[in-house]
Specification:
The structure holds three protein chains of three kinds. Chain B is α/β, with parallel strands linked by helices. Chain B is 47% helix and 12% strand. The C terminus of chain C is likely disordered. Classes of the chains: A mainly alpha, B alpha/beta, C mainly alpha.
Chain lengths: 272, 464, 304
């Protein structure tokens, strides 16, 4: 392509990047601005940063436990979804049985369930069994959509492993289960890692289930964000601080997992 | 029937203050009564009671005070703090699932009817009549504003708790600007009369117009126009002041003919709409938090706002206008001097596991010392002796608060009342957005309310 | 058979059901259960607010009410459809353009792509918050520059004007999800074989001809996939609109999910709320079925 096209393309790309990243940068800046700077009539780009909002909201206001809660919930959801979903995905990849694709479709619908449709019955069912006051209710709720993500994603990864490997392992004397644990899993490890990260991100970011199902001590960060909009005045510095901390793991993980994102986000239909 | 709802206090504060001091002296001078908190709470030592409320200074004050109670009784108190709608939602979910998570709750009084009608609450008499629990020195019928107590914590003739905060709305304005000679001269030149604290709605609007200077980033007023309860609360001031109301009923727990679309009501909504042009550009996205920030940042001249938010605008650490403010009762229209009663009340759920311990805590919180402390920290007590206290009297906005409390009009507390609020919030929002005329919006609201309430609330102004 | 052999047999033949059962069980209990309960609820009058409405059977009354007596629901439906069509088509066009740009012109794709992905990886709540901050009427950064450029007058705030607010909310969604469309289409472009394109260009075909007659048809399954995925997610949209506007002003941005939330958590009319919830779920289910056909059409018969 000609030079001119090149330049134009580069310029367009820069514009796009600026549009994509400025809101986040602005949020970060707000989290380190004094209240006067943050609420100034004319947007302030150069200012003396202050880090007062972070300790104020996390220590004084007690938001630090929420970080912990988010970590525990997202972590447990990931482990649970993987433990249950990866073996299931293997079965879809390698076995044939009647109604297989219908069952697979069922898994898809669970991923697509609108939270608003399901959250009230879920809450009622959880209260009958006395689970509502714990983190368990949120963990279970998040597993519903992550489980199908795991199955869908890992099915593709397992299908990518040539059947010859299976056959070789079986000739070596492994049982099917043994082969799965000792041979296939290590090979599929990168896929599992990518899936794990996606699970974690989706659970970490989730809002509605956490809002309704969680009790005071087990509140996650995403639920804490709207809670800072109070009649004291929305403390934008603190809200921004919480939001930034909530995004840190996500940014890190995005860099780690971007190679496999396409597969995950399109349910394995596109390899990327 | 509106007059029956007006509460007159007159000299009550001073008399009650004096009486309490005298009684207190007598009580402490005489032989110790048989009842003591330590004895009464002994059977409950080691238990934990849990409550939930709105994350605001009165609750934070309670949080700071509770250690005294905990040390005296050995009962641990856990306080869950949420923002307004979450505090209401979580309680609703807990009561209906009958889990008994909360041993006592703090709720807006409008929810009371709903809870009672569904059998969720234990009347407070159960504990008040129990000599083991009841402190004979605590006589709510003597030490509380009776009108406020009845409106906030009673339903269908029975008390279910005590007022946690007794809220009302009144006028905030920038006294420094009002006293400024340059402003005074310019105003007089334009409008032909002296600038003064607005006593009528015409004056309110003139002042708003005078002070609206968008290029300076300063506006006359700001309305809480977001689709949120705040809108309904704010509009009620106008509605009542224009001599309108939502229903004709002699108490909050009854329903009566719907008059929300009366000519007076429509006039009040038209007037309310007219204030939009003197408000900041996104006033239709504001609720109580945003208008308060606007005032704190020195961006508006006058507002109709809450008594329990006033401390924040007078606090130098968060407000640029502290010390410059003035407060007064809401301007008057045909309805004369009016205000509204709003409050959060202590309530004890039927399913609570530690009802007695909870009651002891509530009773303790209602004592003068705790009430004073809470009030001084941004609370809104319902005890006249607190208002009579010299330190409280010095607070710039105490008088406005008391004056408004004296003329407050009750709101509906029937089980349908939160839904009524939702209907009105929607239609008011539509009217403010310009999607419907005031008449249309209030007619639609009346029709929806009629459908909701059925035969007990016919439309006094039928819609064609 | 010895115990050892029996165990081995199990670990061999029983693997299928053994490995699959836990996930099916979990999903049946956690999702099918609530789903069925939701359907059941929709036939009752359960209300937390009004006494006496303890879940008495109502037959189809709730459904009749929804169909005939609830203009707010249908307005919400229309708003949601506008939202869905608007965002999906815009994200499509922009995403395709961006993907082509990256495909043809840019070398260090991975790094750029990762940066571009940030909008879509953030929590929707955070996205709503960021834009609320920037669009705030008095100190919002964007509001200020728009006014300075003369595009917005001082008395209008984007989030407070009921004529503009839906478009703004749609723009925020476009900002958030275009990276997703870009990512998938780019992956698709990368997976296309080179030879036919090179051959076509050597035969003298012009770029737009190549695009129209080769790129698009070959990418069609992927495009369908993206459109459907975004369509379904847009239909379910809740978090960021809830934070940005709460459904207002008026009902300008009251999407179906927000309306359902209001019925359930403001009016506490759980029976009717379940009816609304079911309708939302139904539409999503239908879209899912269409989507499913699309990806299996693409794979030409399915995998495994």
């Amino acid at each position: 392509m000609t030079r001119a096209w090149r330049m134009a393309a580069l310029a367009a790309l820069i514009v796009v990047l600026v549009i994509a990243l400025t809101p986040y940068v602005w949020l970060f800046m707000t989290s380190i601005k004094s209240r006067l700077d943050a609420l100034a009539d004319t947007p302030v780009w150069l200012f003396t940063p202050t880090f007062e909002h972070y300790p104020k909201v996390f220590l004084d206001k007690g938001y630090l436990p929420m970080v912990f809660n988010s970590l525990v919930v997202a972590g447990t959801v990931t482990v649970l979804s993987l433990a249950v979903g990866v073996p299931g995905a293997y079965v879809f990849a390698r076995h044939r049985f009647p109604g297989k694709e219908d069952l697979f479709f069922f898994f898809l619908t669970t991923r697509m369930a609108p939270p608003i449709s399901v959250v009230v019955p879920m809450f009622l069912l959880f209260s009958y069994v006395g689970l509502v006051d714990t983190r368990t209710s949120v963990i279970l709720a998040h597993s519903t959509f992550n489980l199908s993500l795991v199955v869908w994603m890992m099915r593709g990864f397992f299908e990518d492993i040539p059947r010859e490997i299976d056959e070789a392992a079986q000739m070596d004397g492994h049982t099917k289960a043994g082969m799965f644990f000792r041979v296939l899993l290590p090979i599929a490890a990168p896929g599992i890692a990518a899936t794990a990260v996606l699970c974690f991100i989706l659970s970490w970011n989730e809002f509605l289930y956490a809002l309704i199902l969680v009790a005071f001590e087990s509140r996650t960060l995403t639920v804490g964000i709207p809670g800072l909009v109070t009649p004291h005045g929305t403390l934008w510095g603190q809200v921004a601080a919480v939001a930034i901390v909530a995004t840190l793991p996500i940014i890190v993980f995005t860099f780690l997992v971007q190679k496999h994102l396409v597969r995950g986000l399109t349910f394995g239909a596109v390899k990327g | 029937m509106k007059n029956e709802n007006r509460m007159t206090f007159g000299r009550l504060p001073r008399v009650a203050a004096a009486a309490t001091v005298v009684l207190g002296l007598i009580a402490s001078a005489g032989p110790a009564g048989a009842w003591s908190l330590e004895e009464a709470s002994a059977p409950y030592k080691g238990t934990t009671i849990r409550t939930i409320g709105e994350a605001l200074p009165p609750l934070e004050a309670m949080d700071k005070l509770k250690h005294i109670f905990e040390e005296r009784t050995g009962i641990t108190v856990v306080i869950e703090m949420y923002e307004h709608s979450e505090a209401v939602n979580k309680v609703m979910l807990d009561l209906n699932s009958k889990r008994g998570r909360y041993d006592f709750i703090l709720q807006p009084h409008r929810e009371l009817g709903r809870f009672v009608a569904n059998g969720h609450l234990t009347p407070i008499e159960k504990f008040m009549d129990d000599p083991k629990l009841r402190d004979p020195g605590f006589k709510p019928e003597d030490v509380l504003y009776q009108g406020l107590w009845k409106e906030i914590s009673w339903y269908e003739g029975k008390p279910y708790g005590f007022p946690f905060t007794a809220l009302t709305m009144y006028l905030w304005y920038r006294d420094d600007l009002l006293q400024d000679p340059k402003e005074q001269a310019g105003f007089k030149a334009k409008f032909g009369y002296d600038m003064q604290v607005p006593a009528t709605w015409e004056q309110y609007r003139d002042l708003a117009e005078w002070f609206t200077r968008p290029d300076e980033g300063f506006y006359g007023t700001a309305i809480q126009g977001r689709r949120h309860e705040a809108l309904w609360y704010e509009w009620l001031n106008f509605l009542y002041s224009f001599d309108g109301d939502m229903m004709e009923a002699s108490s909050g727990s009854e329903c009566g003919p719907i008059i929300v679309n009366s000519p007076a009501a429509v006039a009040s909504l038209d007037y309310y709409k007219s204030l939009i042009e003197y408000s900041p550009s996104d006033t239709l996205n504001y609720f109580w938090d945003d208008v308060m920030v606007a005032m704190q940042q020195g961006k508006v001249f006058e507002l109709i706002m809450w008594n329990d938010a006033t401390y924040a605008v007078e606090d130098p650490s968060q407000s640029t206008v502290s010390g410059k403010m003035g407060f007064d009762i809401v301007p008057q229209g045909d309805g004369g001097k009016v205000g509204q009663v709003e409050g959060w009340t202590y309530l004890i759920p039927e399913y609570a596991t530690n009802q007695e311990a909870a009651f002891l805590f509530i009773q303790w919180m209602m004592e003068f010392d705790q009430q004073l402390e809470q009030h001084m920290n941004g609370g809104a007590s319902a005890r006249p002796d607190v208002y009579g206290h010299p330190t409280v009297q010095e607070i710039t906005y105490s008088k406005a608060s008391m004056d408004t409390n004296a003329v407050a009009i009750a709101k509906p507390t029937i089980p349908e009342s939160p839904e009524i609020t939702e209907i009105l919030v929607l239609e008011l929002s539509n009217a403010l957005a310009g999607k419907k005329s005031s008449q249309q919006a209030l007619d639609d609201a009346a029709v929806s309310m009629g459908k909701l309430l059925g035969d007990c609330a016919p439309l006094k102004f039928p819609v064609m | 058979m010895s115990v050892r052999k029996r165990v081995d047999r199990l670990l061999d033949k029983g693997v299928g059901p053994l490995f699959l059962a836990p996930s099916v069980l979990l999903l049946v209990v956690l999702l099918l259960g609530p789903f069925i309960y939701m359907v059941v609820l929709s036939f009752t009058d359960l209300s937390y607010a009004l006494p006496g409405r303890d879940g008495n059977f109502l037959g189809f009354d709730n459904y009749r009410r929804l169909m005939r007596d609830d203009p707010v629901f249908w307005e919400s439906f229309r708003t949601t459809l506008t939202f869905v069509f608007g965002v999906v088509s815009t994200e499509f066009v922009l995403g395709f353009a961006l993907a082509s740009l990256l495909f043809h012109q840019i070398q260090r794709r991975r790094f750029v792509l990762t940066l571009l992905l940030i909008p879509m990886m953030l929590a929707p709540v955070t996205v709503g918050l960021m834009w609320k901050l920037m669009l705030q009427g008095e100190f919002g950064m964007l509001t200020h520059y728009l006014r300075a450029a003369g595009l917005l007058d001082p008395q209008t705030a984007l989030l407070g004007d009921h004529r503009l607010v839906l478009w703004i909310v749609m723009l925020v969604d476009v900002w958030e999800w275009t990276p997703f469309v870009t990512l998938v289409i780019l992956a698709g472009l990368l997976s296309l074989p080179r030879e036919p394109f090179e051959a076509a260009i050597m035969d003298g075909a012009r770029p737009w001809q190549v695009f129209r007659d080769m790129t698009v048809p070959l990418l069609r399954p992927i495009l369908a996939l993206v459109a459907l995925l975004r369509g379904i997610d847009a239909f379910k949209e809740f978090d960021k609109v809830f934070i940005l506007t709460g459904g207002g002003p008026g009902n300008a941005t009251e999407l179906l999910s927000i309306y359902t939330w209001r019925i359930n958590f403001r009016n506490w009319d759980l029976g009717y709320g379940a009816t609304s919830a079911f309708m939302v779920y139904l539409v999503v289910l239908i879209l899912c079925a269409v989507f499913y056909k699309a990806i299996y059409w693409r794979a030409g018969g399915g995998q495994g």
